[in-house]
Hints:
heterodimer; A: alpha+beta; 5-stranded mixed beta sheet; 30 strands; B: mainly beta; Methylamine Dehydrogenase, Chain H; 4-stranded antiparallel beta sheet; globular; Nucleolar protein 11 (chain A); nucleus (chain A); transcription regulation (chain A); Nol11_C (chain A); WD40_repeat_dom_sf (chain A)
Amino acid sequence: MAALEEEFTLSSVVLSAGPEGLLGVEQSDKTDQFLVTDSGRTVILYKVSDQKPLGSWSVKQGQIITCPAVCNFQTREYIVVHDNKVLRIWNNEDVNLDKVFKATLSAEVYRILSVQGTEPLVLFKEGAVRGLEALLADPQQKIETVISDEEVIKWTKFFIVFRHPVLIFITEKHGNYFAYVQMFNSRILTKYTLLLGQDENSVIESFTASVDRKFISLMSLSSDGCIYETLIPIRPTDPEKNQTLVRSLLLKAVVSGNTRNGVALTALDQDHIAVLGSPQAASKECLSVWNIKFQTLQTSKELPQGTSGQLWYYGENLFMLHGKSLTVIPYKCEVSSLAGALGKLKHGQDPGTHVMPRFVNWETPQGCGLGFQNSEQSRRILRRRKIEVSLQPEVPPSKQLLSTIMEDSEKHIEVEVRKFLALKQTPDFHTVIGDTVTGLLERCKAEPSFYPRNCLVQLIQTHVLSYSLCPDLMEIALIKKDVQLLQLCLQQFPDIPESVTCACLKIFLSIGDDSLQETDVSMESVFDYSNSVHDEKMEEQTEILQNGFSPEEDKCSNCDQELNKKPQDETKESTSCPVVPKRAALLNAILHSAYSETFLLPHLKDIPAQHITLFLKYLYFLYLKCSENATMTLPGINPPTLNQIMDWICLLLDANFTVVVMMPEAKRLLINLYKLVKSQISVYSELNKIEVSFRELQKLNQEKNNRGLYSIEVLELF
Amino acid sequence: MGEFKVHRVRFFNYVPSGIRCVAYNNQSNRLAVSRTDGTVEVYNLSANYFQEKFFPGHESRATEALCWAEGQRLFSAGLNGEIMEYDLQALNIKYAVDVFGGPIWSMAVSPSGSQLLVGCEDGSVKLFQITPDKIQFERNFDRQKRSAIHKMIVDRQHMGVSKRKCIVWGVAFLSDGTVISVDSAGKVQFWDSATGTLVKSHLIANADVQSIAVAEQEDSFVVGTAEGTVFHFQLVPVTSNSSEKQWVRTKPFQHHTHDVRTVAHSPTALISGGTDTHLVIRPLMEKVEVKNYDAALRKITFPHRRLISCSKKRQLLLFQFAHHLELWRLGSTVATGKNGDTLPLSKNADHLLHLKTKGPENIICSCISPCGSWIAYSTVSRFFLYRLNYEHDNISLKRVSKMPPFLRCALQILFSEDSTKLFVASNQGALHIVQLSGGSFKHLHAFQPQSGTVEAMCLLAVSSDGNWLAASGTSAGVHVYNVKQLKLHCTVPAYNFPVTAMAIAPNTNNLVIAHSDQQVFEYSIPDKQYTDWSRTVQKQGFHHLWLQRDTPITHISFHPKRPMHILLHDAYMFCIIDKSLPLPNDKTLLYNPFPPTNESDVVRRRTAHAFKISKIYKPLLFMDLLDERTLVAVERPLDDIIAQLPPPIKKKKFGT
């Protein structure tokens, strides 16, 4: 359900907004910070979650800003134009706008457009477009005129479609509207004429646009109060010809036709738009959210102090000038179900918090907290407190850490993480660790070169993470083939899905020995098998083990003989470890991990046959090692247990039986396994017999202890 | 310290009744428990979970519901179709009101505590107004087609949510309109009462979910299943800092083997009881502020009063059951042995007598005289006194008829050491003294309670010379009466915790009192003050392990030849306190199970302290000194009780 949350004012300071309102609100390079340009001389950088300005810059008296400041996401600098032609570029450290970089252009700028992932564009009033870099190389270059005389740019928007920048701008001339679409990869400019349909004399008040795969969906709010949609193809069929576009009615009578103030609309997502204006001629102005799919009004909020008819929407926040102050209304559209809608109205969360922590901290009793009243008043108090806290220079270390993650270098992050971990564990420790990992992983995904391995290792070793908290972690490690991290995850996470376990197994089996040499896997579970020279002893032992059953029954006895005829060195081979110790350590991590047979089996079938054989060989080797001593355990710290080994042998054989049976090189292995199992079974049947005798003895012993209903005993107290 | 021959008795075939209902009272921190035989017990959770009051059961009065209303008034309703109120001072039933709707299956109290609502067999739901001294019928709700077997937690009717062949065993109505139901299909379901829609369903058991209780804050609740599992559900935020909360099943507990028939939720603990007769109090660790011994799990199985009395002279034991008494004679041996030996019996124990009560009422108390020739017991409405005659191996029993009308209901009976006097504590607060001679009796005197109080006396102690009688109620202090002069001698200063056992030492006439917080006081009756030893003990304090014991001391006795010794026991230990030895401090080992075999006397003397404890016999229901060198210990092993319970729901275990 789409919902507007409680509004809040960004600043108590009244902005020097002119009668036509603000010049603009633009995103900065940080998600939570926005550049607000008023219609006079000032640019202010606000941090929304803190509701406070971070910086403010003004041009000299006598100069006037003509184009809203934007952020160059690539260089993290801010750009503004004053007096139509003077370009200023500065960053956070600069104090005075007079002293920053300045370029005087040869034509008047309509707007600078900047989106994430590409360089800013400068749109001139005459319709020409330049990339910022190209323009700065020669500021005085000649700017051509694209649009005709008396044609005025009304609105513009910049998109990235399939990684290609696309610019659209709308012009008006004598009540006729034209749309220009500029493709930057092909440098094609297409001009369309917008046909207004039957209501020819209506004036378009506001535009918004959204983009999908093929079309730019241009929505316009006309003076008759209706919203129309125009679909503009991104790839023009014939760029040379002047094409016409027809608009279709989307929503009827959303706002009153004749309002005193302006109206505005903005697209929120695929299905929702926000409209600012008065629903009826006399009523107060409202911000309403409409679902265009169902043509329903989802929610609306009255703005009694009036607005400037301007509306901006960035990252879940709607910005508008309410009265004299800049107001932010967070917008949320959560997935809703009919049952939820009918049964219970879900309450939105506190508006002050925008970044919702995704992790519940089960350690602190706040969950069953009594202090969670939802009353308006407490919320306000909370917010006030929050402001007070944030005004203090000290930022909590966890917040600092999170911000570090978003921008700093790997080295720096590592130092910060170590610093944080060295701190005393705070009650929200779990939450912070969870957020940190998520932050790191998000950055990993965004920047393929970024892989803070040491940090991740440290964070995993805090023992508070689990697979379900950060499923991406193992995914990334799998992509990077980081076996060390995978081993650590397998050891630490209690809830790894079988498919991931199997993916790890595949990597562990397939990774080359040479690349293993470079890794630094934990060898804790591996005992140095190389120095154990039990080969001959082993043979003897099987002889002893077979005591009690007649080899004549063995249907495989002739293969046995065949095997025994094989040269001695092959027998030796079967008792030396078939894998290098590092791989053994990795495989042991797999053996230790928890799994459910049903879910694991299908994945095991995908492993190539030679890897299956290798793994089986290793398991067989472990099994032999196990049966060397009476306790049936392997030496070393935390070695795989006999049950784990047995279970995995069964699993592998179950999953790949047909494959293994067909493989000639697995034949010997299978025969060996069969022989060993058979001999072990006979041993256990003997042990069973002994156990029965012992049980009887135990029973006799118990009866002796069990006194009847009555006895007389001697007690001495000391 | 002493070597004893111990008659280790395990033939007391006592099986507690299963627990049917529990009701927790937040105001007084008391817990009312009703059992399947109609017995109602009141536990004081503040006083170390002591069972301070009990109301005897009745065969026809199966309690199906129990609740506290109007502050601290206790009501019950049952299959006899009556609502009863219990008088917690006089320890009797104040009144019973027939609701005329057939057997009552459920009862709930309105949130304000001023109205009672009962669901009857005939399908009607009846509302009663609670007046200061009674309850008054107010209105009858529409009859439903089926009998009303869901519990109504608030005085509002709820649409039927039952499915075919599925019984809703309990519902809870939260103040936000959520209805939680538990049913025979093993589900816990959340409903929206406004729309009647199912919001969430948890399948938690393969068997019935039989009970539910919600915490007062409505942020957590507890359910009990027929498999013996108790589940804790909590309302937790979906994410941290989020105001949206959802019910999550947080903790399962398996402390029962059988059906959990009833659960309660105190602010700090989950309370459950069921067919396996254990009352389990499981503190919630996150709600407990100090992680001390109070945070430990409590499992209460045995009553905190004595069911056994003993005739020292004839070596007889009298066992009290709900509807009969058993008299046993102990065996004997001529052999001797060293510590731990089991001696060969020259004569086994004999079952002499099986005395069945008449009528449906349970026995409240019973006693055999020290000489073994008198047996007395009492039910709610009648007092019985029997004269026993022994001729060689034959025993004859003669009932003393024509009891005076004031001897109707006794809460405690005690014979004097020489068996010539009988002391009876009646539920009216009076103490009667009866002279016994030959086959007849004579009423000597009645100590009336202090004006204005009706508090019943539940514990009696008489001095061996017969001069002093001490009586203790549930809350007020211990009164000591002079039997010769027939007047109140003194009152021992009141203490915060109820008295669990007391006895008067021979010769010195020191009254030894044990309280439910494991404190033991010694009060000199002639001097009307605490003895020096008691003061020393209080000054130094008991050993911390002693104070952590979770069953009350139920019996105190003395050694006739060793005046410095006090013998006492609880369900899991037997202890002789030697007042001549130094008291243990927290650093010394309280339990010293190992005999000092090879150690020198120096070491032994250094480690010796006043508390000599044996934990061999457990669960110990009774222990007393028969003569200087002989003890009798009555044990009731838990396995023997379980063997007599109905079989639990069979759970499939892997490999069986």
